[in-house]
Write a structure and sequence with these properties.
Distance between the termini: 27 Å
Helix content: 10-25%
Bound molecules: uracil
Structural class: alpha+beta
Largest sheet: 9 strands, mixed
Number of domains: 3
CATH superfamily of the largest domain: Pseudouridine synthase I, catalytic domain, N-terminal subdomain
Shape: elongated
Radius of gyration: 22 Å
Strand content: 25-35%
CATH class of the largest domain: Alpha Beta
CATH topology of the largest domain: Alpha-Beta Plaits
Length: 237
C-alpha cells in the first residue's frame, strides 16, 4: 500500500497534506526515514512511526451512533449538520459514511463505516435485514389495524409493504407506543405505514439493525466503535 494513502486513511489529512508530512522527514518505516509518498509499505509487517508514535493501521472502521434529531444522515450538507460532523476529528477518516438513512427527526441506531461490502449486504433488499423501531403515534391502535400493518398496507404511492411485526407496548387514546420490525427500507417507510392507517408518527427511534442493538449507554449524539463480536455478527460469521 502507498505510504500517502495509508496515512490519509488513518486520519493524517488529505493526500496533499500527508505528502508534505512525509517530505518533512518525520515518517519512519522500520526506523528509516521515508520521504516519498508513493513508496510502498506493508501495514501488517512494517513498523511505521510518525513523530515517533507508532501507527496502528486498520482498513475498516465501524461506529455505532445514537443519532439525535436535527442531524442528517449524509456525509456532507450545505445547510444542516451531518452525522459525520458529530465524529471526533480523528475519526473523520476518508470514505466513512452512514449505512442507510434515518430522517432528520429520527433518533437511534446508525452504523457508520468505510466497509462498502458490509453496507451493501445490510442495505440490499434481497437480504431482508430486519430493523426494529420504537414508534410513538397519535391515537390508539386496534387489533385490525395491527394486523393490517403486519400483513401489508398500501402506501401513498401504491406500494404494498412486506410482512412486518408490530408489538403494542402502550395503547392510549391520545398517544400509543409500539415496536415495529420491518425488513425493507422504503423512503419514510415507518411514517408512511402508519399514515396508511390514518395515524401520524410523533416520535421515531431505531433500536436494531440485523443483529446489532443500540447500546443504551450511548447518549444522543454519542458513538462508539463496534466490538469485534458485533462486527462478526453483522458479517454473519
Ligand atoms: N422510516 C421512517 O419513516 N423514517 C426513518 O427515519 C426510518 C424509517
Amino acid at each position: 500500500m502507498r505510504m500517502d494513502k495509508l496515512l490519509a486513511n488513518v486520519g493524517f489529512g488529505t493526500r496533499k497534506e500527508v505528502k508534505q508530512l512525509i517530505k518533512s522527514g518525520v515518517v519512519l518505516v522500520n526506523n528509516e526515514i521515508v520521504k516519498e509518498g508513493k513508496s510502498h509499505v506493508d501495514p501488517e509487517k512494517d513498523t511505521i512511526t510518525v513523530h515517533g508514535e507508532q501507527i496502528v493501521y486498520k482498513e475498516f472502521y465501524y461506529f455505532m451512533m445514537n443519532k439525535p434529531a436535527g442531524v442528517i444522515s449524509a456525509t456532507e450538507d450545505m445547510k444542516d449538520e451531518t452525522v459525520i460532523d458529530l465524529l471526533y476529528i480523528e475519526d473523520q477518516r476518508p470514505n466513512i459514511f452512514p449505512v442507510g438513512r434515518l430522517d432528520k427527526d429520527t433518533e437511534g441506531l446508525l452504523l457508520l463505516t468505510n466497509d462498502g461490502q458490509l453496507a451493501h449486504q445490510l442495505l440490499s433488499p434481497k437480504k431482508h435485514v430486519p430493523k426494529t423501531y420504537f414508534v410513538v403515534i397519535d391515537g390508539s391502535i386496534c387489533e385490525e389495524e395491527r394486523h393490517a400493518i403486519e400483513t401489508g398496507v398500501q402506501l401513498d404511492d401504491g406500494y404494498v409493504t412486506k410482512p412486518a411485526k408490530l408489538k403494542v407496548i402502550k395503547n392510549g387514546e391520545i398517544r400509543s407506543e409500539v415496536e415495529l420490525t420491518i425488513t425493507e427500507g422504503k423512503y419514510h417507510q415507518v411514517k408512511r405505514m402508519f399514515q396508511a392507517i390514518g395515524r401520524t408518527v410523533v416520535y421515531l427511534k431505531r433500536m436494531t439493525m440485523g443483529p446489532l442493538k443500540l447500546d443504551e449507554d450511548l447518549a444522543l449524539g454519542e458513538y462508539r466503535e463496534l466490538t469485534e463480536e458485533e462486527i462478526q455478527l453483522l458479517k454473519g460469521k
